[in-house]
Amino acid sequence: MQLHTHTWGEGERIALLIHGIMADHRTWRRVGPALADRGYRAIAVDLRGHGASDRGEYSPAIFADDVVESLPAGAELAIGHSLGGLTLSLSVDRLRPKRAVFSDPAWHLAAPEPGFDPERFARFKAAPKEQIQAMNPRWEEADVDIELETLAVWDETTALSLGPLTGADLLPAAPAVPSLVQLADPSFLISQERAAVLKERGFEVRSVAGAGHTIHRDDFDGFMASLEGWI
Fold it and tell me: Could you tell me which residues come within 8 angstroms of residue 130 by beta carbon, excluding any fewer than 6 positions away?
């Protein structure tokens, strides 16, 4: 499937941005322009079932195939957040960016309590503004409003498609390209033990102190600082 994309900048270097579940390209509203200011042409997708992209069957493998069909290979940089990080890890060998950043990637779908519940996750589509603000006290008002807008156009059955992966170990065996894993503090997806495994496998791992899961919205400055040497 050819995905909807949004582009910031006209630089010769290309950066690819892949959002997490429930979101779309608008989650990168500050990251895209910041990369453009650094000379990139930043291209963000809407995964199928999200934003302005079409609906259909869903699975991580299908998300990855769509990204490969829709984005240019050989980019200078690719960043994937959460489900976007999983999608990037399943497509990076075909996209072949020079560098990859996996921002709190969904490589282990089992939160400590009560565990990953796809149906409960899907019901979040109806979350009111007050709930989103309470869950994300550090977000700017614009990000809360964007979250409401993206939830309204999100196909919540994308969450149900992840059910078979609950509890699975999705850590990549090795980086296909030089790769940074950027973690929330703490990360409910990548434990300290799994972070140590990733380091042993050749990934660089950095945490953004005090940041929640959506690091680029929770602490934009910390997110950008954590990318030093990678952008």
Answer: none
